[in-house]
Amino acid sequence: MKPEALLHPTPAGLYCPPGDFYIDPVRPVDRAVVTHGHADHARSGHGAVLATPETLEIMATRYGEDFTERRQSAEIGEVVNLNGVALWLVPAGHVLGSAQAVVEHKGTRMVVTGDYKRRRDPTCAGFEPVPCDVLISEATFGLPVFRHPDTAGEVAKLLHSLEQFPERAHLVGAYALGKAQRIIRHLREQGYDETIYIHGAMQRLCDLYERLGVPLGPLAPATVKDGRGAKQDFEGKVVVCPPSAMGSTWARRFPDPVIAFASGWMRVRQRAKQKGVELPLIVSDHADWDELTDTVREVDPHQLWVTHGREDALVRWAEVEGRVARPLHLIGYEDEND
């Protein structure tokens, strides 16, 4: 069958007519398949949601009583029949519970990567390439300028700064789901065993990661006391917070803080400067240019459909390689940490 008959873009998101379901819909639908727990992909208000057990736990934690959908848990690799369409989930390496959606019907197989990365992440299962007829790939960092450095080296920069400035608190801006826990785990792996302080907005998700088997070590609330206590409590400490908190009055109560930000966008010096970042850490949960192109070559699909970001550059690269490619221009998805 033609790929467009199996999956095609609509204003609500990617729709599968024979299976009557959407993948990561941006509007409420009767049945949603959700690739991971970030809010731009995992929205509430659907009639039913199918996702990995971890993603369902994350959605329940984030939405609480508003998460009233019927829930269908699908383990990695478990084939689910949806109106005659075979669907199964494969690790995406993005955050805990993240998955690619593999859709197969009448001899046509399509893979929706969702958000993904190829480098090792100690908080989630690694990406697994799946041969297919059509690969629908994200392209958040789909420009050749985006080549992410080794993660251990970026975390070493933070550890080195702690040694250089033991009298200053180090505020690390990181997305509350996935990035924060990953930074904490990398710090632990590189020998940092002191208490790490976390913003209150991260407490529930860090607790969930621990409950789901990702040890984060000693954590404590980053509660800043008025007066003389704050300086003594947070000198030389790591404080992990949402990016939105870095410019708030909350952040200004710490002792002469070093402002760090963990994001793939820190490759762009002007963006770091605009955000007042003293210590940019190029740590991304998305594939960089080499990961994107290497994945296309490895999967070797008959067609490449590109979405979520810098679509035109990756489409052009594929065409130069002699591949059939097209942009999807899906709306409603946000870039990392925006």
UniProtKB/TrEMBL annotation:
GO terms for molecular function: RNA endonuclease activity. Transmembrane segments: none annotated. This is Putative mRNA 3-end processing factor. Pfam families: Lactamase_B (PF00753). NCBIfam families: Xnuc_lig_assoc. PANTHER family: BLL1145 PROTEIN, CLEAVAGE AND POLYADENYLATION SPECIFICITY FACTOR FAMILY MEMBER. InterPro entries: MBL, Metallo-B-lactamas, RibonucZ/Hydroxyglut_hydro, Xnuc_lig_assoc. Residues 26-155 form the Metallo-beta-lactamase domain.
